[in-house]
Amino acid sequence: MYIDRYLTHLTNVPPLTALLLLAAGVASLIWGWRVFKGLVVFDALLVGAYGGYGLGMWLEQPDLAVVLAVVGGVVLAAVVWPLMKFAVSVIGALLGSALGLIVWETIARQAQQPQLADMAWIGALIGLITMGLLAFVIFKSMVMVIMALQGAFFVASGLLAMAMRVEGLRPSVVAELQARPYLLPAVVLVLAALGLICQYTKSTEPPPAKK
């Protein structure tokens, strides 16, 4: 199940990264439309650093892994800045893919249809194509949606990563999410809806009068 893979990744998230995810998530939910460029660069830094570090560890060079993490983050952030609209579309496609996979698998397992659950890649493909294309067609609205989904996912991931660090709390968190796999996507969608409302409200506020 997706939840098992997700929780396994969270156990390896350092506390500082969890705090950064939480902070970036709150910023995405509340001010996503206004600061989305900075948040996209932050995403690029994370992905580039993760990829560089992974490459260094694959080469069995821990010291080199740190250098590659810094280089990877900086290079990817520099590449993303002039390609902002394309980068937003890519993030939307990835979020849509993850959301499609999770929703498909969750519904299939709740309906006790394991064969359908194994075809969750179809839901991922539908989400990827839909969100990626919509980001180009209705840019401003999709930026709000993407930032809301990203913020909700970051907040949930940051909080869960911190919870997984607490020995007495980890078993109950894992057991609860495994017993109710719909709980995580439900929380993410509720948070995203609140973030979308907040962003839309702020985007329609008149600019402050000049003195």
Question: In a nutshell, what does this entry contain?
Answer:
With 211 residues, this protein is mainly α. It has 10 helices and no strands. The radius of gyration is 18 Å and the shape is globular.
Keywords:
mainly alpha, globular, 211 residues, 10 helices
- Choose one word for the global shape: globular
Please give the radius of gyration in angstroms.
18 Å
**Unreliable stretches:** none
- What's the number of extended β-strand segments? 0
Q: Please give the count of helices.
A: 10
Q: How much β-strand is present in the residues? A: under 5%
- Average pLDDT across residues? 84
Largest sheet: none
The portion of residues assigned to helices is: over 70%
What does this entry look like structurally?
- The protein has helices spanning 2-10, 15-31, 36-58, 62-80, 84-110, 114-117, 120-137, 139-164, 170-179, 183-203.
- α3 runs antiparallel to α4, α5 runs antiparallel to α7 (120-137) and α8 (139-164) crosses α10 (183-203).
- The chain is globular, with a radius of gyration of 18 Å.
- The longest helix has 27 residues, at 84-110.
- Helix content is 82%, strand content 0%.
- With 211 residues, the chain is mainly alpha-helical.
What secondary-structure arrangement, pairings included, does this model have?
Blueprint: H1 2-10, H2 15-31, H3 36-58, H4 62-80, H5 84-110, H6 114-117, H7 120-137, H8 139-164, H9 170-179, H10 183-203
